[in-house]
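BUG: 3D viewer hangs when loading the predicted structure for this chain

Environment: internal workstation, default settings.
Expected: structure renders.
Actual: progress bar stalls at 90%.

Input used:
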Amino acid sequence: MLRIKKLALNIIIFFQLFTPVVFSFDADEARVIQIYEKIYPTIVSIDAQSPYGISSGTGCIISSNGGILTSSHVIDKSKDIDVTLNNGKVYKAKVVSVMNNDLALLKINANENLKTIELGNSETVKVGQKVLAIGNPFGFSGTLTKGIVSRIDYAKNKIQTDAAINPGNSGGPIINSSGEVIGISQSIYNPDNNKSNIGIGFAVPVNSAKDFIKQCKAKHIL
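Structure tokens produced before the viewer hung:
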């Protein structure tokens, strides 16, 4: 009987030592992970050859046939634009249209149906709500940051957030807790000439982008 007990104890110890650790996430973590895994395939990296060198930014796939939304300053005066999907495939892009609110639409021919991002309603945005930013800051593709809506500037039509936005994030989405885009990352403010992030970032409200996309579709150019 004693030997049986020792054997059982050894078996228990063995499984305690070699059973893989199962990590658990709280509800908020699980939701963020779920949103990121859903959104990430719709995010692209943009590298545009401008007269001043390479301009890098982020874009969102907004139509399955290759329509991409980004910031116009990312592709300003560029004739050669490369778009890299999350799977590493690189395509040449053409500029479909540019809006004076720092928005631009690009088009690639991917020869496949692409996964698209979901656009929300920026009119329902509230100061204090949680948001996520996804982009390619400093070339680190697919980077996720988290924060809140810090302020809404109705006069300048801008959403302010403390979610970290850095060079390379421009054109990427600001996302709500439902996984919908509420803004397009545009710029940051700081005292060192926009070289680093101090928690004051700005985004163009997504409703401006939705109107822009609608106009392009009505003209059959997207």
